[in-house]
Amino acid sequence: MPELTAVCTPNSYPHEDGRVEHGYQLNVLDGDLAVVATVELSHWTSCDLEEAGRHLAEAGYELRPGGEDGGWSPAGLGYMAPVAPTAAAG
């Protein structure tokens, strides 16, 4: 099974209070860093990792064990987590 990583990043640079104006984006990347799935979260003003996990599940991916916060680890301005496809991703 190929290694897949979900990355949740803001679509704009956050303000000093951490709020963003243009939402977030979830990308699922393969081992070559090619985007295999994208979920737009343009209504978000801050990152909600639990909700991000639900959106990944709806897109057909599940978080794999690891990371610090339910599978997520800080990465630059966002977070990343190892994921695996579910039957819904097929």
Low-confidence stretches: none
Distance between the termini: 13 Å
SSE string, helix = H, strand = E? EEEHEEE
Class per helix and strand makeup: mainly beta
How does the overall form come out from the CA principal axes?
globular
Alpha carbon gyration radius: 13 Å
The major β-sheet equals:
6 strands, antiparallel
Helix content: 10-25%
- Mean pLDDT equals 86
Strand content: 35-45%
Tell me how many strands there are: 6
**What is the helix tally?**
1
Structure notes:
- The chain has 90 residues and is mainly β.
- Helices cover 11% and strands 38% of the residues.
- A hairpin with a 5-residue loop joins strand 2 (24-29) and strand 3 (35-41).
- The chain is globular and about 35 Å long.
- The mean pLDDT is 86.
